[in-house]
Design a protein that fits this description.
- The chain is mainly α and about 300 residues long.
- The protein has 13 helices and two strands.
- Strands 1-2 form a two-stranded antiparallel sheet.
- The two termini are about 45 Å apart.
Amino acid sequence: MAGKAPKQSLVRRLGDLKVALLFILPALIGLVAFCLVPTVRGVYLSFTEYSILGEPEWIGVDNYTAIFKDELFWNGMAVTLQYVGLNMVLQFAIALGLALLMHGVAKSTFVRGALLLPFFVANVVVALLWFWMLDYQLGIVNEVISWMGLPRVAFFGSEQWAIPTIAFVNVWKHMGYTALLIFAGLQAIPHHVYEVASLDGASPTRTFWSITLPLLRPVLALVLVVSVIGSFQVFDTVAITTQGGPVNATRVIQMYIYQKAFAESDFGYASALSVVLFVILALVAFIQMKFLKGNESDLD
C-alpha cells in the first residue's frame, strides 16, 4: 500500500499537467503564430532586400549599415526622444498626483472609475476627437482662444506645437491607467508605517519623500518601463493627426518604419529598423530596471 501512494500521486500530477497544458494550448498557439513566428521572420527579412512583389534577396548587414547613414532615421529617433521625454514627465507627474488624491482624498469609486474612462476609448477615436477640437479653423479650443482675443494656435500644423500636442493627447488618454497602477502600489504600503511616522512628528512632505516614494519604487519602476516602451511605440495618434508632418516634425520612428514598409514597399529595410528599435527598447528597459532596482522592495 505504501508503494501505491507515490505512484497514485504521480499519476494525479501527470493528469493535472495534461489538463493545464490543454488550457494553455490555445494561448500558446496564438503566441507562436502571431508573435514568435512573425518576430523570427522579421529578423530574417532584416538581412534581405524584399518587396511584397518578389522573393527576399539576402544582402547581409547592408540594411543595418544603411541605417547609420540614414538622416531620416536619426531625425525619427530625435523626434521620438522628444516625444518620450514630454510624455513621460507629464504623464508620470499627473498620474502620481492623481494616485495620491485617490489614495487620500477621492474615496469615491465613481471618481476613480471616471479617471479611467479615457483609457477605454480607442486610440483612433481619441486622436480624432482632439484633432477636431484643436482644429485651427473650426476647433472649439481655438474658438475659445479667439473669443479671448488671443491669436489662434496651429496645434497640429506647427513644428513648435505638434509634438507637445500629441504628447498632451496621449497623456490625457493614459494618465488614468498609470494612476491606477501607482494607486495599487500605494494600497500595498502598510498603514502602520504612516502611523509610526505621524507619531514621530513627520510632516506630510517628509512622509512622502522618506516613506511613500521609497516603498513605491518597484511599482514606479514597472510603470516607467511600461510607459517608456509604450511611448517609443507611438504611432496611431501621429498617423491620424499629422502623418509625420509638418516637415518631418512628428515623423516618429514607428511612423518612419510604417512608411518604409507600406508606402515604399521596402520591407527588408523596415524590418531592420524594427529590429534596431527592439534592441533599443530592450536596453532601455534593462537599464531602467537595473538603475531603479525594480526587483527589490524596502518592505522586505
